[in-house]
Amino acid sequence: MTKQKILIARATFPDLLARLESQFEVESNQADEIFSAQTLQEKMRDKDAVMVTASEAISAALIATSPRLKAICNIAVGYNNIDVAAATAAGIMVTNTPDVLNETTADFGWALLMATARRITEAEHWLRAGHWDKWRYDAFLGADLHGSTLGIIGMGRIGQAIARRSMGFDMRVRYHNRSPLTPQQEAHANAAAYRSKEALLREADHVVLVLPYSAATHHTIGAAELALMKPSATLVNIARGGIVDDVALIAALRTGRVAAAGLDVFEHEPALHPDFLTLSNVVLTPHIASASAPTRRAMVQCATDNLLAALAGRIPPNCLNPESITNNH
Ligand code: 8YV
């Protein structure tokens, strides 16, 4: 029997790749080249399934020229890189990797929040540059986390994990979400209280963004929203580029309209707006919130399980569009 053909679009853990190679005809990319849309189109043309990351845009046009495709397996919880509606119409299952990254990503949200509020990277750069010749009472004064009000926009599984961690810091939690949590969920999330976006921005000392990106959430934080925040506030984005208007944020950081920002994601990543690099009150990381060794392995494992199920004719554990089955070719 001829083996099914799959494309693993980016470099991955060799042992997990070997598992797939034992079962399928695999085209891999261990050199980790970034494929253009045209190259991706050529490579997907004869494939039964493809495993991608959030960096690969799987458009309706790519789907239309991949007649054998049965599954698109994302190695990410966010899936705004995939045209799910087009995949559904074409009878192609789309999967993501939820849950396995919740705690790791929540940990990182805290790391970024603390580094930003307490100016850790700014202070380290100064020290490394050889400026430290005496202690000063007012060197690198930051904002307190303990006892403050934490605002979380996007209160899904990761948002709730961030809220739970705030108990240890005696914080009040306010959240905004498409729909309010149940009273039990709110109780588990450090007695989080629902607020409108505007009320949350006015009230919070620290705002963390953990919402999915879509046309509806584009520029959730722009100039008008930044103007509502306390001048002493910290903004952290571990969600997606495009949720924050980077140009508006740069202006707010420059003028002191907000005190500081911690950013793991950017509008045109991996390209950064160059002005970010000129600001000392921003902590910049290269989209690594889920990057712990066990979690990245778990994400690839999860995507692999999804792919194996789809190509065995089953509905994968993390299928985002089970209704695609009825359109199956
Ligand atoms: C991914 C992420 O590692 O899961 C997500 O949505 O943003 C990250 O955890 C990254 O997007 C690569 O796919």
How would you summarize the topology of this molecule?
Blueprint: E1 5-8, H1 14-21, E2 25-27, H2 37-44, E3 49-52, H3 60-64, E4 71-74, H4 84-89, E5 93-95, H5 102-117, H6 120-128, E6 149-153, H7 157-165, E7 172-176, H8 183-188, E8 193-194, H9 197-203, E9 206-209, H10 223-228, E10 234-237, H11 246-255, E11 260-263, E12 282-284, H12 293-311
Parallel strand pairs: 1-2, 1-3, 3-4, 4-5, 6-7, 6-9, 7-8, 9-10, 10-11, 11-12
Bound molecules: 2-keto-D-gluconic acid.
2-keto-D-gluconic acid is lined by residues 53-54, 75-78, 101, 290.
In short:
The chain is α/β, with parallel strands linked by helices and 329 residues long. 33% of the residues lie in helices and 14% in strands.
Describe this entry's structure for a reader.
- It is a single chain.
- The protein is of the alpha/beta class.
- The chain has 2 domains: 5-98 and 293-327, NAD(P)-binding Rossmann-like Domain (Rossmann fold), CATH 3.40.50; 102-284, Rossmann fold (3-Layer(aba) Sandwich).
- It contains 12 helices and 12 strands.
- The protein has helices spanning 14-21, 37-44, 60-64, 84-89, 102-117, 120-128, 157-165, 183-188, 197-203, 223-228, 246-255, 293-311, and strands at residues 5-8, 25-27, 49-52, 71-74, 93-95, 149-153, 172-176, 193-194, 206-209, 234-237, 260-263, 282-284.
- The strands form 2 sheets. It has a 7-stranded parallel sheet with strand order 8-7-6-9-10-11-12, sandwiched between helices. A 5-stranded parallel sheet has the order 2-1-3-4-5.
- Helix 5 crosses helix 7 (157-165).
- The two termini are 20 Å apart.
- The structure holds 2-keto-D-gluconic acid.
- Residues 53-54, 75-78, 101, 290 line the site of 2-keto-D-gluconic acid (8YV).
